[in-house]
Description:
By secondary structure, the chain is an alpha+beta fold. The protein folds into 4 domains: 1-24 and 433-572, Immunoglobulin-like; 50-91 and 380-430, Immunoglobulin-like (Sandwich), CATH 2.60.40; 125-377, von Willebrand factor, type A domain (Rossmann fold), CATH 3.40.50; 579-726, Immunoglobulin-like, CATH 2.60.40. It is built from 12 helices and 35 strands. Strands 25, 26, 27, 29, 32 and 33 form a 6-stranded mixed sheet that branches. Strands 7-6-8-11-12 form a 5-stranded parallel sheet, with helices on both faces. Strand 32 and strand 33 (681-689) form a beta hairpin. The longest helix is centred in the N-terminal third of the chain and has 30 residues, at 220-249. The chain is globular. It starts with a strand and ends with a strand.
Amino acid sequence: MKLRFTLNVILLLSLLASASGKQAAATSSQTPQNNPxxxxxxxxxxxxxxxxxxxxxxxxxxxxxxxxxxxFEVFQNNKPRHITNFSYVAAQPNQAAPSVAARCxxxxxxxxxxxxxxxxxxxQVRRAIALVVDDLTLSFEGTASVKQALRKFVDxxxxxxxxxxxxxxxxxxxxLNGVTDDKRHLQAAIESLRLSAAGSGLRALDPIDLxxxxxxxxxxxxxxxxxxxxxxxxxxxxxxxxxVVKGLAQLPGRKVLIFFSEGFPLIVxxxxxxxxxxxxxxxxxxxxxxxIDSANRASVVIYSIDSRSxxxxxxxxxxxxxxxxxxxxxEGVHRRLGNRNADYSDxxxxxxxxxxxxxxxxxxxxxxxxxxxxxxADQRGYYLIGFVPDxxxxxxxxxxxxxNIAVKVKQSGYRVRTRTGFYGVTDEETRPLKASAGKQLxxxxxxxxxxxxxxxxxxSQFWQDKKGEAxxxxxxxxxxxxxxxEETVTGWRRATFEIAAFTFxxxxxxxxxxxxxxxxxxxxxxxxxxxxxxxxxRINLPIKKPGAYQLRAAVLDQQSKKLGSVNEFIEIxxxxxxxxxxxxxxxxxxxxxxxxxxxxxxxxxxGRVEDTDPQxxxxxxxxxxxxIAEYGYVIYNAKVDKATGREELAxxxxxxxxxRLVYDGGVRPFDPKxxxxxxxxxxxxxxxxxxxxxxxxxxxxxxxxxxxxxxxxQVATNWIDFEIVx
Length: 726
């Protein structure tokens, strides 16, 4: 798959030509504070202060929210420390999410399309949640259970203000490249989860028998190779978790990492029968300690979920004992059963250590969805406690050693959870040096909110060409006013900048990428026009496989070192299935109603617009009240009545502002005026934006209903966002 790029300076794209199939820390205060804290980092280590988050519950697991500083005791290496900073951070109450059943109509009616999700702003983020699936260890049974739990979380438990990422440990390069609040993206990521070739097999626990693999596993050389392989997978998994923690550290809100795994041990048992020695696996232990320190510094709480559910320690129906009994007797059965149960217990060691040391929980239950819900509910609120560390902590070589933390509540009957320690190195010492220009560009690409120094907009649509091949057309607009143009000796203006673009698949892996530098030289007249209209960059991406994709682009101005970035999610349907499907929407603003297509509708009070604005192009989509918004799209796979040779379609137009419906155009019959050779139907219309519409971000949603299709396949929808400005 190859990206084709075209850079267009001062180029306005046609609205429907493409659609028509012409195809074209902390303070230094020493006085306890009891003021609410918001969005604070939880474990910040400065020269004078250490801050930790503390969760307190009663015997029934209910949060305790009314404690005072004098109710707590804090210890560093078993020595009491004075509390200097104190506050309780209360999470916002969860808003009940409608169930899947509630969102669907009756069985004899098509399902109601979901509303377009509003674009989440940094200040609106309540929680940043990374759901990490350790497919390097998961069995077939575990993979199915995890997918079911993830679906339940996205459909029923995910709340407004949640920024979520679903990550596979076998695709570590994608860590936090897909953090989003868009449920379509998350659902696509869930469906892409598959049993990894490196997984543990069909079942979480190996059956007891004497098959060839078991015999080989008893050979020392093979067993050693198998241990090295497991160590490599364990270190790889912990490395992915470290990347996730690093990404979470850059996000606002409460930071939660939920880790689904079948675990890996921190020790190796001696099974020679000579005393049961234990040998620590240092390579895994070292990686675990480094991860815990990173998580504590980034204020990330880790919840470990054993995806094997609660395994039985007894014999099961899959255990074949006939051969074992013949060769080893009943003692062999007991030995093998004991070894299997010991393996099960040992593999939970790392899961328990990660959760315990970061203030989280190890959750073991037969209902993984309930385990996720418990982890999320545990974030209802926490105490933020700061104390001055021992003088020697940061002033000697001992500072690099682990400093143990213990927090107690003087009153009995309460359960206290917090991070268990920190390393005596300040945050300033661990902060990396200023990144190079290339690294800054990559960081901007990875940011879920994008870099904002240079204003960048992107519009991406799915289309099908005359040959029936799917492709994505993405238009990127760069605001030239945010860039630095130097004046040359000839009086011309020159800008030097770099554009990087990446495409990610539904599994988070990079599909394609491009990084190119450009030099624009222009006369003063063209320079002024460029400032007015901006710089357009077009991406044509052939798509050979249906699925969910991310398009990300970043711009670096070499003169000013300013950055701008943008990302979009787009789902490519499988048209070969024959179900009703819509292409991407394209919309632009027009001052004159005479330029609008048929199907005019009016939203709000009518107004007049004296002149068009370059900002109203399909790539930028910034409109003023009183403008005409023209939109177009293509309908694929509409059913045809054999008797009449025609379709029976209806369309509906809705307008949302920040997730709330502000206009419903009602269901209207649709009479296609244009068809392509492939039977594609060209659709479109226009709406007049009233002067009374509040400035802000809007979403235009189109719904198409095919009355000849099966009930579950009657409705298709798509939407596009735009902005109304004064």
